[in-house]
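Reopening this one. Same input as before:
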Amino acid sequence: MRNWMPPSSVASHEMIEAIYRLFPNLQERRKSQGTRLSGGEQQMLAIGRILRTGADFILLDEPTEGLAPVIIQQIGRVVRELKQRGLTILLVEQNFRFAATIADRHYVMEEGHIVDMIPNDQLEANMA
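Same output, byte for byte:
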């Protein structure tokens, strides 16, 4: 069976084990083809594949779209952990409640243009 993780110059057994610690579901399904994973597992796989490259900047585009609440919580936990480890994360997300638990600042876009920037610590005051 073909391995669905991309080749990487920084990947090691320790790296793979670290990804499996972040996403235990992937370890359980490691023999499955990526196309046979659930939507949430595919999102986990996408993040794991990025981490395997040794990237220190991650762009996440709607990582919660169509996912069950329990999977959204798991993705959020991992993204917050990656942020704490010092990774830079650019999150494009319509799920405001999810984004508010992660972001340092929020950019509001209308018709493709940034119309406002709100620091996370001022978010509640701007919502009133």
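So the earlier flakiness isn't reproducible anymore. For the record, The beta strands are 57-61, 88-92, 105-110, 113-119.
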